Amino acid sequence: MDRKPPFRRKTAISYKTEEKTVMRGYDLSELAEAGYSFYDAMFVLFQNRIPTENEKKMLKYEMGVFLEHSMSPSAVGAIGVSAGRPNLPVCVAAAVSTFGGVHGPGAAHGYMLNKYLERARKEGKTIDEIAKILVDEYMDAKKPVMGMGQPQHIDSDPRAEPIHLKQEELELEGVYLELQRAIEKHFHARRKKDGRSYVGVNVVGSGNAALMEIGFSPNAGWCIGSVVRGFSCAAHALFNMKKGRAWGASRNEPMVQMIDLSMIKYIGPEDRIVPKKEEQQEYAKKQKEKGEYKQWVI
Amino acid sequence: MGYLDKEKTDALNKLKRGRKIGNLDSPKNPFDYYAREYGTVPLDTKRAPFQWVSEVAYKNVHRIVARGYDTTELMEEGYGVIEVLFVDYQARIPTVEEGQMLNYVMILALEDGLSAPAAISRIVAKSKTFLTQACGASIMAFGHAYGAYSAFGNRLESYLDRVDKGEFTPEAAAELLVKENLHDEALGVSNLMLKDPAAKRMIARAEKLGVAGKYIEFTKEIVKAAQNLSTEPLDLDMLGATGATMMDLGFTPEATWAILAVTRSFAAGAHYIEAVEREESNRLGQQLTPKEDYDGPADRPVPPLADRDKVARSAVCRTPEEWKARFEKMKEVRGSGFSIVEEIEDPSKKSGIKKVGKL
Lengths: 298, 359
Fold this sequence. Notes:
- The complex is a heterodimer of chains A (298) and B (359).
- Chain A has 298 residues and is mainly alpha-helical.
- Helix content of chain A is 54%, strand content 4%.
- Chain A has a three-stranded antiparallel sheet with strand order 1-2-3.
- Helix content of chain B is 48%, strand content 4%.
- Chain B has 14 helices and six strands.
């Protein structure tokens, strides 16, 4: 059996011999045998260190609370992909891939916090002062303040404030929580001043602040949050694969299905005649001249 | 299902209030947790029910229509994939020459040896997956460096916009673009095609077919500016030639990205097949990572769990100065992410289709 790696690269993360697999210097088997948790292993993987008991507890809370979110883009992605009945991992991969610039933008939030912490340090501002600057700069530019607002949990994400409270209970209050709390304070004040409705902190705002407080980088935090969601998305896909109908269009189901033909609303160009092939050139040139097609270009 | 009735809701909340659940009754919460409803939100009858809204295509029991054209009729009249790509992305039939040019581009985009899309397809194949998983993985290999058609095209658009506004001549805009982006992977000019004439041939073909326009013209200016500015030999590369040609054919940067990534995926399918035919599958744990390739921390004993308090150092930083010191130190830990700073933004132009959905 060929045991050579598919490609060779230097890595500081792990190596694997016939005797053992070693991550950041620790034999994985020994780590498990010694009684460490999966959460501890995440700290070793991304930060090259054993966490404190409270840091481990915080990660445990964070990962648990983020794992399931019912119908959000990630679950819908998994369910949509499952309709064609590919292998299950494809549904999960699609779900994890839904995390981008809007859905669970953990890294973007982290980079925002880091950028303004650095500015506070360089410009000699307090964290409260820099939080106000952040909020004003984002809102003046009409950019959404990362970590605030959730389209479904409109008055407050049920996970968000409890994450803050857990972080405080575990005495893990550092610069990130201070900055995040200050952002929320100034964000609420600014919206109130502008006569706009209350928008609560979301799970990225509170959860990612906690992840970064316990030492994860923006991308490591994003990886943890996005991938842990993959567990529940697999369950949603599996439910649909085992108990639902493939395709999601059957007319024999009591409820109208996801892609029943009646679910399609078309707002494009009206039905039209296909030009004969010999008419193509003249037809195409006229179409370009007229330019009406431009409104539909995507 | 709808909301649980009030009597049951009150009873459940009373029970929970009595039992107390962690921090959920903290006055810091912006809500009274024990007054919250149970069950799903009832159907909203004030708004139109959900439908899949599309400008691109519809179907009914008897026909499939893309941008107004029945797709069966399109095929019966002698059109093919090339023309349907124009229909789907631009809502128009291409001229014969435009069709010929897209055909040319797609042939060149089909295969690129064992670069990222084919390599990932082959790696996935060895796990004994469906072919489609490998094809899908190959599409994901297209980013803002490899196959960076979106980045390339949007950059062209932004500088040409400034030319249109009278801010620069095309030559000056090209010079500025190169100055600001000389080392970017999506410049479209590099040392990759110094011995391969394919990129320049593509432009020559576009000119011969009469489909070359402002994007090809501007890209040529970029090549000139880059050659003037660089001390190394540089020339138009495949990204530049293909991206500019596709945009002169009327495709947006995003449409170009999608069409060419999918085009390559056909070849990735062939690489999957060859990997399955010629190579063995991999088992979990089969492939080793030689210790000589590892440059992380040396082997060390796992500390007893009871010693956690002695060995663990908290990451929590109380001041920006402490934070900065830790941040810099963590850059030494490869794979931790502390050396990466990137912009992750919403890549869509706008969200929501406001004109539909009203009752």
